[in-house]
Write a structure and sequence with these properties.
Layout lengths: L2 H7 L3 E9 L2 H7 L3 H9 L5 H4 L4 H13 L6 E5 L4 H11 L17 E8 L9
Antiparallel strand pairs: 1-3, 2-3
Length: about 130
Amino acid sequence: MIATDFNEKYFMYENMAIWEISSMEDFFKSHNMMKEIFQNEYGFAYSEETAKGMNLIDAGFAVVEKLLDCFRDKHFVVFSDNDENHTILKTLQDKKAIQYGMDIHVLNPNRIYVLEMDKTKEFQKYDT
């Protein structure tokens, strides 16, 4: 999901959590299915050898977005320090529209962050 869509419809989501990814190994250890999804999406197996030389912020960011997009029961906004998505999320925190459980202004510039959430079951929120 792109944060511009989220910016207009944030009230339609619940159970939000920020997930900090420090490395590709950290990402692949987070869910048992990640390596299988990687294999299906890219056509070759993920290994530590695959990750060598992969810059987390550049190549890793694209991999994280692509693999998370395969999870249909959750919604994700992937961001890093001072990118477009981060700017939108900071604005929502500053307006006090959302409380993330952390200061979204202070991020490690060498990490990727994921806002993970569910669509709300309160269907009246879809009518606004």
